[in-house]
Design goal:
With 408 residues, the protein is an alpha/beta fold. The chain has 13 helices and 16 strands. The strands form five sheets. Strands 13-12-11-14-15-16 form a six-stranded mixed β-sheet, sandwiched between helices. It is elongated.
Length: 408
Amino acid sequence: MRERKRGVVLVGHGGIPKDCPYDLVMKLKRLEAQRRSTGGAPTAEEVELDRRIRRWPRTGENDPYQSGLEALAARLKPSLDGSLFRIAYNEYCAPTLEEAVEELLKEGVGQVTVISSMLTPGGSHAEIEIPRTIDQLRRAHPDVVFRYAWPFDLDLVAGMLATQVKRFAGSPGSGGTDSPEKVNALGMAKRVESAAPPRGTKAVRRAGRGAAMVRDELAQAFLATGSFKWDPQGGFKLASGLTSPFYVDCRALMAHPGPRALVARAAWEVLKDLEFDCIGGLELGAISIATTLSDYGFRATPRRDWRTFVVRKQPKDHGLGKLIEGAVQAGDRALIVDDVLTSGSSLLKAVAAAREAGLDVRYALVIVDRKEQGGRANVERQGVTLFSLLTIDDLRRRHETAPMAAKT
């Protein structure tokens, strides 16, 4: 009896393309939640929305998750002893697990092994949704053998993670230098035969990955502290009088020491190579930001002596009647900071006041750019280079992928 062809499907979570309208995703999630609460079948509208999002055009720029999974797949495939191989996504991206399996069956595969990129137990995707789909496939194809290579052996996972730590931190006494060897998932050393990158390249790549991780942690912190709220039905009234489906509360975020540290670390990656003397902005939001960045710069290497100042909304009606308070003088190079950028009016008020006081303002930084009302363009038209630690898209994506408990 001839042996059946074997196939392997690697299933990843699936990412939302950066340029996919967020309202489409939220509408899909509402329809899914309604269906699950009633136990009914997907409506035609839900099916069409799911298809539209999954088939959204992808690039490495708008869907880095897909690029990452494809890179993993390219390394996995040569180790599968000639098995036919496909990638699938649990949500948001095509192909689905069902579609990937159908492709394998068309090529005569009689044994399908499904493996997930999600390593730890307890998640609904790997523990509930993927097994449910496999059960449906078994019923639809009773002559095909399906295996689900999950859960992972946590001892092997722990070994892989420990080896990764050693690669970056080094063994005791090594001073944290990189090993000249790469390691595979079983913790076994494999000599790298390709030429080593130029000195410093690894450090630059790690720094880039580290900065991205800090930004992601900062986005998570907005949810954990209740500083990002989403209400597409009622919405929130903004200072401009307009209503928005989301609300960003950086003052609530900055009330917590952990998130303040994340803001400082993310900002340091942006600011460390810029030349300026002082940091300030419009009361009240800019006060904690300027102080946090100044303190971090003073402790950093090399040390930065960034002084701080605050721009009052109105000059004092007593004393010296100052509009700007702090350790600044005419000719100082100033960085203007603010918490949230919408139209840019509050930030530009601080820029104008600082320039009126003789400060040289070339740079500004905000924690979140809402990407509304032309804020960035308004600021940059005044000759100010604007940096943002996050955009509203970052918070939306993090809100979408967060557990339900983190969204309340």
